[in-house]
Amino acid sequence: MKRNIFTSIFFVGLLILCSCGNKSNEFRNIRSEVLKDKIAGGWAGKMIGVTYGAPTEFRAQGKIYSDSIKWKPEDIKGSMWQDDIYVQLTFLMSMDKYGIDAPSKKFQEMFAKAGYGLWHANMQARKNYYDSIFAPLSGTPEYNLHADDIDFQIEADYIGFMCPGMPRTASVIADKIGRIMNYGDGVYGGIFVAALYTEAYFESDIHKIIEKALLSIPSESDYYKIIKDILKLHKQYPADWQASWKELEDKWGDVDICGAGSSFNIDAKMNGAYIVMGLLYGEGDPLKTLEITTRCGQDSDCNPSNALAVLGVIKGFSGLPHEMQEGVKALGDSTFIYTSYSFNSAVTSTYKYALDLISKEGGKVTYKKVLVRTQIPVAPKLEVSFPNVVFDKRVSVFDEKAWSFKGKWKAFEITGRDKQVRKQSMFAENTGDELEIAFVGTGISLEGNWYKDGGKADIYVDRALHRSIDTYYNFARQQHTASIWHVLNLQPGEHTVKLVVKGEKRSESEGAKVYITGATIFKTAPKKSDNFKSSFE
To answer: Of the residues 79, 85, 184, 315, which has the fewest C-beta atoms closer than 10 A?
Structure first.
């Protein structure tokens, strides 16, 4: 936790430096109408890209997506209800309400209380808010097993859009918002994507934009290393993106904690590498960029959305293909679901914030011309979410040899689409009901159900109370199967975890039940990427 606090102090210092004496005397010039056109291009790229890839999302896991991709400009209307758009617009609305310098808790509050469903790191950040775990703790590995997930990476666009040529300013904002739901590489993903946009305002060479954006994240981080690998692969296979994809998968395919033990990968750095791959091999062509980024697979609506947004800033809205422009214009004043924003008003608001930040950071704004004071990127100190944590095995709660139960535990059954009734979990609700699991390793995640009748429990690790948990979840009328508790970085060896039902609940819960579906066991060992011998090294 101290490292996290020190990092925040570092960025406060960086903000002071950005706002006072440590400034360049050099300025970069951009016409007002060009700046606004580039902001519009960025927002349009998000809308187009997310709808292009939406039908393919997670349909290619650990493999290249090979089916046909059918997209037409009318499909852009689907962006009106995409979380890639409305979640970050919530943060923009928070700025409107509380100011750009408001504390992170205000941003987390508005985000947590929004009426839409959330997943992964975002959902855990919402749960943490209602459990009184606020940013920056809400994104840390101790309280968020999704710390390295993609969430902030797909929500940081607005930050880069409003910081033209100002990567240090973007990093300060990104550090505050990103820690609501992420940590380490999860935060670096958002900083990196925002930095791509800041550089794209004044540079058209994609390779240079990527290299400059990397200066905003620690060179020792895995995120930095995987992007460097893509740059090397592109040099080795300049005309064969699939060869690059294969080598990348061989080296980095096991990095995801959230999808540990499966082909599912929502890790920020892996999906960030796909953004960069699409940009490099797309060679500035919007459709080619969209197709390659999408075919890389995994989170294949978010990644092309980021990639085309970068091209949108480079080219400006007026430089995008005519049919794409017309598709966006047709929706110009339509309101994105759960927000007060349309495409046109988002562009106008982002432009206003950009001018305010440019002036604040020592630039000059006139009616026709904007002078942006040059900033030199500064990377934060390294933080690693899950050092040498690798998947070992999964244990079902119905594995009788692995678990011991005391009290009145019952099987919870569900009826599937095939009309078959199946046991989904075990639950108990009486004070003192217990379950225990023994395992060998260095970490464990207890999986269960966050339900509207969820109750509270105490968790003991090796007979010592670790934490009390609350399994109630019905925010935005959403219930979910999730990691309800985890602990990592234990000493290697044998351990026991005991859950004791408290028979207590929060006032809004319909019950005091605690549901368990199983456990994921982790061990400490080098990851594949640590010792992998690549042909491009």
So the answer is: 315
